[in-house]
Design a protein that fits this description.
Blueprint: H1 4-16, H2 19-36, E1 38-41, E2 46-52, E3 55-61, E4 64-70, E5 98-101, H3 104-111, E6 118-126, E7 130-134, H4 139-145, H5 157-170, E8 174-178, E9 185-189, E10 195-197, E11 203-206, H6 236-243
Parallel strand pairs: 7-8
Antiparallel strand pairs: 1-7, 2-6, 3-4, 5-9, 6-10, 6-11, 8-9
Helix pairs in contact: 2-5
Length: about 250
C-alpha cells in the first residue's frame, strides 16, 4: 500500500541502491495500485507549454531596418531534444518529457516569469486517449511528489524521478497533478509524440505583477529542556530566542 511507511522505505532504498536495481521489485508490489489511480484523458484535449523569452528578427530592407519580436514557435517551443534536456522533477538528464499546463495562467506561473520579462506559450493538442496517473487519487503520493523544491531540498528530486520511472515502466503515459504555483493543473507526458503543436497558436506574455501567498514560519524546538544547564547569555543566538517574547519555547 502506498502510504507514509511505503515512502519511508522508498527513500531508504533510493539512497542506498541504484534505481535500475529497484524498479523490478517496486513494479511487482505497486503496479496494480498505481494503475487504479489512473484516469483516461480523451483525445483532442488542449494543453499549454511555455518557454521564457522570445525570438527577434532584424534585416536591412529597401525602406530601412526591419525589426520585430515574435514568440518561439515550432521546435523552439516544444520540449528540448534529449541531448539538451536537463534533470527536472520527473525526468533525469537526457530524458525529454513534455511538461504542460491546463491553462495559460498556470503555464506562466510554472515558468516563474519575473516582472518585466516575456515568455512564449503555445497550444498542444492530444492525439489519442492517454492513461495518466491522477495524483488526486492518492493524497500521500500527491503531497510527496509535488512538494515545493528549492536549492536547500533539491535532493528530493531523486525520489520523485524514481517514482516517475516506476510509473513509466508500468505503462502509464504520464502524470496529472495540481500546480504548486497556480490554481490549475500540470501534466508531464513521457512520450512527446502523443501531442502535436497547434499551428500559429503561439503567443507572448509580459509579466506585469507577481502575487505571492505566504504564511509565517515559526522556529522549531525539538527539546522541552532546551535551555536547561545552558548560560544563554554566552550564546548570542540562544539569548535572542530565550528573551524573544514572540516565541513559545515548548517543543511540539
Amino acid at each position: 500500500m502506498i502510504d507514509d511507511l511505503w515512502l519511508i522505505k522508498l527513500k531508504i532504498d533510493v539512497k542506498s541502491r541504484n534505481p535500475d536495481m529497484l524498479l523490478e521489485e517496486y513494479i511487482k508490489t505497486t503496479k496494480q495500485e498505481l494503475l487504479s489511480y489512473t484516469t483516461v484523458f480523451k483525445k483532442g484535449q488542449i494543453l499549454y507549454r511555455g518557454r521564457l523569452g522570445y525570438k527577434s528578427y532584424e534585416k536591412e530592407g529597401s525602406n530601412g531596418l526591419i525589426k520585430f519580436r515574435y514568440p518561439f514557435y515550432g521546435k523552439d517551443i516544444k520540449n528540448p531534444p534529449c541531448h539538451l534536456s536537463e534533470a527536472n522533477r520527473f525526468n533525469r538528464d537526457g530524458f525529454s518529457y513534455l511538461y504542460m499546463s491546463s491553462d495559460e495562467k498556470t503555464c506562466i506561473a510554472e515558468l516563474r516569469l519575473k516582472v518585466g520579462s516575456i515568455c512564449s506559450i503555445a497550444e498542444f493538442r492530444q492525439k489519442k486517449n492517454l492513461r495518466l496517473l491522477n495524483l488526486d487519487n492518492n493524497k500521500t503520493l500527491k503531497d510527496f511528489l509535488i512538494t515545493p523544491v528549492g536549492d536547500e531540498n533539491r535532493y528530493h528530486y531523486k525520489f520523485t524521478r524514481f517514482i516517475s520511472d516506476l510509473i513509466k515502466e508500468i505503462g502509464i503515459d504520464g502524470i496529472a497533478y495540481d500546480s504548486v504555483q497556480s490554481n490549475g493543473k500540470c501534466f508531464v507526458i513521457f512520450d512527446d509524440q502523443n501531442f502535436e503543436l497547434v499551428p500559429y497558436s503561439e503567443k507572448m506574455f509580459l509579466a506585469k505583477r507577481v502575487e505571492y501567498q505566504f504564511e509565517e514560519v515559526l522556529p522549531e524546538f525539538c527539546n522541552n529542556n532546551l535551555f536547561d544547564g545552558i548560560n544563554v547569555e554566552s550564546d548570542e543566538n540562544l539569548d535572542y530566542i530565550y528573551n524573544n517574547p514572540n516565541y513559545d519555547k515548548k517543543a511540539d
